[in-house]
Write a structure and sequence with these properties.
The chain has six helices and no strands. The chain has 102 residues and is mainly α. It folds into two domains: 32 residues, no CATH class; 68 residues, AhpD-like (Up-down Bundle), CATH 1.20.1290.10. α1 packs across α2, α3 runs antiparallel to α4 and α3 packs across α5. The longest helix is centred in the last third of the chain and has 15 residues. It comes from Pantoea phytobeneficialis. InterPro entries: 4CMD/NDH-1_regulator, AhpD-like, CMD-like. This is Carboxymuconolactone decarboxylase.
Length: 102
């Protein structure tokens, strides 16, 4: 699996996308008060896993931990997801969780 771009490599490869990510996604969307960062992390991880975007999962798993989610809660998220997004999506996400130090 190819490694996901981090902030610095994204800036180098696609400066405008890096700027939009910082300004719009994390500077606006993630800052809105209707949902907590913890809730946004749950939604983001479920969506990424359901869509098979496993390259993005490691970074978001760490971010979810920073937003207060525990390893047990993340495992439960992906277990629950198996019934809605399918077993392969859940197992792929759990594989990423197993590889992270959360």
């Amino acid at each position: 699996m190819a490694k996901s771009l981090d902030r610095d490599s994204l800036q180098r490869v696609a400066p405008k996308l890096a700027q939009l990510t910082q300004d719009v996604l994390f500077g606006d969307i993630w800052q809105r008060s209707v949902l907590t960062p913890r809730e946004r992390s749950l939604i983001t991880l479920a969506t990424l896993a359901a869509l098979g975007r496993v390259q993005q999962l490691p970074w978001h798993l760490q971010f979810a931990a920073e937003n207060g989610l525990t390893r047990d809660e993340l495992a439960e998220l992906f277990t629950h997801l198996a019934f809605y997004a399918g077993w392969p999506a859940a197992v792929a996400a759990l594989t990423c969780l197993d590889e992270e130090n959360i």
